Write the structure tokens for this entry.
Amino acid sequence: MTLALTEATPDAGTRRPRGLTILLAAAIVLAALNLRTAVTSIGPLLGEVQAALGMSGTLAGVLTTLPVLCFAAFGALTPILARRFGEHPVLLCALFAITAGIAVRPLVGSAIPFLLVSAFALAGGAAGNVLIPTLVKRHFPHRVGALTTAYTTAMAAGTTLVAAGTGPVERMSGDWRLGLGVWAAFGVVAVLPWLALLRHRASTPYGTAGAGAPGTADAPGETRTVPATIGLRGLLHSRTAWLIAGYFGTQSTVAYILFGWYAEILKSAGFSPSAAGLLLAVLTAMGVPVNLLVPLLIAKAGGVRVWMIVLGLSYLGGFGGLALAPTAATWLWTLLIGFGMGTFPLALMLFALRARTAEGTAALSAFTQSLGYLVAGAGPLLVGVLFEATGGWAAPFALIFATVLTQLAIGWFAGRDRYLEDDLR
């Protein structure tokens, strides 16, 4: 069975009031602010959590691996839930899950319930990962770059704020439970505009802002026939889906290696723990300006392929300097690597830029993130295995360079103007 779908949203025949457009944009940004709070609040207090809950080293390892497992598993289920219950209700439930999970897990008294409640919160984050690019495509089909800039910047800001603030909150309060649970307040704020939008949706369609504006879509009035639902079989046979999944997977692998091992690489080069931690904080904090800048550069100064190459070369320059002369210009290497991490917002933009419809964006987002996070979870583990086997950083750096070069090669093909729906017809 096929269904005629146009690029415009199902309610594209009406224009949204300006106030509703602003509310939608703000709701998306506030939701994105919460997507990593359940992840980054754990790292600064992992030792305290282990000691208080009697958590073994094995269970602590499970806790640190849980985000990528949940992002992969629950991300794959999200399009099914969205088709059954609607995107907005599912995202609202996801925000409730994040908020409740963050608030409740400091209150449990043993390791297994802590892991289960953490998985509940992370499931909400996984659903948000998939749904937010879909909602951007549905409600702002001709403003994908601007909205991607806004929500990826919010995501980076939330990640940095929680990572930097969890420790100070714990020290000021003297209670690790407050240090973990305080971030539920972000979720409470994010839920409010979605409740208002859900009520508005029941009585009035949202419409679309700027229908008919030029963008990545078909020309106004042009109808294309694509499958009514895009299932796993179609995605498995789509070259576009595999290329974008490969690009997302390789960029996520590099990012998770950095989060897990960058400080250790610097300490092996002779940096003190505090200096290595400061440079890691700089690397993480660069996500805010980079997530703000990269989508704008793509929209204003060249196509996707150009910036894939620029960001890949920035990675290679930073990692090359770090491997050959780690103490010579460490701040420069850190800034180059931090700019290279702009591959993350670029990868998120591809979900909307390589799909003609919101349904295609949802399918592409779920497929890509599920595979990508599974691949990324293996990266830090392989670095640890290689370092232990060889006693040095040459083999881990070889893995990093191979991953970046693979990313560049995949990006060259993923950057073509080819759409998921074209593969499925």
Q: What stands out?
A: The radius of gyration is 21 Å. Residues 17-210 form a domain with the Growth Hormone; Chain: A; fold (CATH 1.20.1250.20).
